[in-house]
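Hi Y.,

Following your request, here is the sequence exactly as I used it, all 110 residues.
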Amino acid sequence: YCGVDAFLDIVPLRLVGEVRPNAWLLAVLQRGIHNDRLATYGQRLLPLAKQLRERAARAAADDKAMDARVYETVSNQVEGLLGAFLRTWPCDADSCLDDNLGRCLAGILT
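Below is the corresponding structure, written out as tokens. Let me know if you'd prefer a different format.
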């Protein structure tokens, strides 16, 4: 096991503005996260989900309903990785649950 950070460094998701996105990797990550760093979720995946949501909103405003739906679906999948991080107790849970990450997580959960 190499960890999510190392995995994403080797095989990037490329979900925003890329010709060949690797959205299929989200399912691999969902099953492969074990005692990983919650900070990785907050630093790499949460901003990606936000970026995808912004793309969805822009696509909807431009009457590109299908593109908006795809971006929204992928954003939901990225946000859904939180469960995989929490399921096996992240190794840095005690140190990374600061106010900023806590507010972001509360926003996802509500």
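The longest helix spans residues 38-61.

Thanks again,
Q.
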